[in-house]
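In the current project phase, the collection of sequences with tokenised folds has grown. A sample record is quoted in full directly below:
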Amino acid sequence: MRNFLSIGLSLIVVAAALTAAPAQPARAASFIVNSTADAVDVAPGNGVCETATAGQCTLRAAIQEANALAGDDSICSLSRNV
């Protein structure tokens, strides 16, 4: 009886593992800093670098966004002054 219970439990575990959703690969994101201001990202992790000022991406906001996402991300600047 114990062997049947052990085999049944093992089959349930294997079946659950096989029906689990496949893992999604992490995608690299690229953020372009276009402001010298020091402002935070309004929604870290949503994939968009944007402060409370629409269209503005600061270095702080880009770092917050990159840290909130999985994978290797890149941060670039439009100007040597940023």
The chain has one domain: 2-77.
